[in-house]
């Protein structure tokens, strides 16, 4: 049994409980064994003027687009399909080796900023090789695209057969640090009759209500996506059979949370329930100039909302905490403790990992970030994390009881 080590810092933010001024967190092996107020036990290590927060949870990435930073400028909302054309053109320039290099770059950036759990949309399972070798938990959402029913079924079958091969292959990693899931890509790129049953099984993700053109397609079967898909030679009107609400209906068979990525144009009365999550990507949302995101209206209804970064094709970096800080800057009425929860425990819950990580609780994995904070007092200690004067010094991240290099 590994020796127990007790850490202290200026503030400890369990997230599941109120912050602890000079609190302590005790780690034994890979596990948190105590989280206590100041004076309960003598610390072994004082981390100084930092906040200890749970490891960050990035619910939505496209690691394979990490080489596109600055190369595909976001458009305005009405021309979103022009941006998609740019993404497709970019992907056609990348060799398999290029894609693997891009994935490693994006993953390293996530880890450097303190991400300990992520959800990656992966084309053909490409990110598996890098993710399973890294110090991170992950849900890998295998992206499925196909308006033609036979094409869609074929790609789902590819998912199942490849997952079995990877799981049983010689490079299978130890432990249970990652999981597979499906991502029917978006309402405009999948056969509705085939994709809706996949959504009914839970544990999946779909891009939904990302642009006004998508709403026009679902409502009227017209608009920019018809031209876009026709240009690609894949337009199939018979595949587009559902309305927006059909994608969010609750099915009794759903076993795990479903993720609805973006939700920029979701009506606030959309019938979401406890098993479903909106993943809000704040800086990507702002880069496209979308109207104010309705996440607070959904939270007021009890709907879970977590954060993602999206990809470096639409975001300057993959710093999940920067997403929360950006929201604080544009929506200062949102409580800071809620923003921190959205960046940690809510995200872990959304991805189905809340029993293992997402908060600093006894029995959970010792995943946390030592975050430099401003050298001042604050009535609400969360302001030390989200205030404009936060230091830019490097963060230290512990994953499963070991500090990352």
UniProtKB/TrEMBL annotation:
Keyword Hydrolase in record: yes
Ranges where the Amidohydrolase-related domain occurs: 52-387
InterPro entries in the record: Amidohydro-rel, Metal-dep_hydrolase_composite, Metal_Hydrolase, MTA/SAH_deaminase
GO molecular function, one term: hydrolase activity, acting on carbon-nitrogen (but not peptide) bonds
Membrane-spanning residues: none
Keywords: Hydrolase
Pfam families: Amidohydro_1 (PF01979)
Listed name of the protein: Metallo-dependent hydrolase family protein
Organism (species): Limnoglobus roseus
């Amino acid at each position: 049994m590994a020796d127990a080590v007790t850490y202290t810092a200026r503030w400890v933010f369990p997230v599941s409980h109120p912050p602890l001024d000079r609190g302590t967190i005790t780690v034994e092996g890979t596990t948190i064994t105590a989280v206590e107020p100041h004076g309960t036990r003598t610390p072994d290590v004082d981390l100084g003027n930092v906040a200890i927060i749970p490891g960050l949870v990035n619910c939505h990435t496209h690691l394979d687009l990490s080489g596109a930073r600055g190369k595909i400028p976001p458009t305005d909302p009405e021309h979103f399909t022009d941006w998609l054309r740019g993404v497709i053109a970019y992907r056609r320039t990348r060799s398999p080796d290029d894609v693997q290099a891009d994935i490693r770059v994006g993953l390293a950036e996530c880890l450097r900023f303190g991400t300990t759990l992520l959800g990656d949309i992966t084309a053909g399972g490409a990110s598996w090789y890098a993710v399973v070798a890294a110090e991170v938990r992950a849900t890998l959402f295998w992206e499925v695209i196909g308006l033609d029913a036979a094409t869609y079924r074929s790609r789902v079958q590819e998912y199942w057969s490849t997952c079995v091969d990877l799981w049983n292959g010689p490079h299978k990693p130890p432990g249970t640090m990652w999981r597979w899931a499906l991502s029917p890509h978006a309402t405009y790129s999948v056969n509705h009759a085939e994709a809706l049953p996949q959504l009914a099984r839970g544990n999946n993700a779909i891009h939904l209500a990302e642009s006004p053109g998508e709403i026009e397609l679902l409502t009227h079967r017209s608009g920019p996506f018809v031209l876009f898909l026709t240009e690609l030679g894949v337009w199939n009107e018979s595949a587009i059979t559902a309305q927006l609400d059909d994608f969010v209906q609750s099915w009794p068979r759903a076993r795990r949370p479903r993720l609805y990525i973006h939700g920029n144009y979701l009506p606030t009365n959309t019938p979401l329930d406890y098993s479903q999550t909106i993943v809000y990507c704040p800086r990507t949302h702002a880069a496209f100039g979308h109207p104010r995101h309705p996440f607070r209206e959904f939270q007021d209804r009890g709907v879970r909302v977590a954060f993602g970064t999206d990809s470096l094709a639409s975001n300057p970096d993959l710093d999940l905490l920067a997403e929360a800080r950006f929201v604080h800057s544009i929506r200062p009425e949102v409580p800071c403790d809620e923003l921190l929860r959205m960046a940690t425990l809510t995200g872990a819950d959304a991805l189905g990992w809340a029993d293992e990580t997402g908060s600093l609780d006894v029995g959970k994995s010792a995943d946390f970030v030592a975050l430099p904070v401003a050298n001042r007092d604050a009535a609400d200690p969360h302001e030390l994390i989200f205030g404009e004067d936060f230091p830019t010094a490097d963060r230290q991240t512990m994953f499963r009881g070991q500090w990352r290099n």
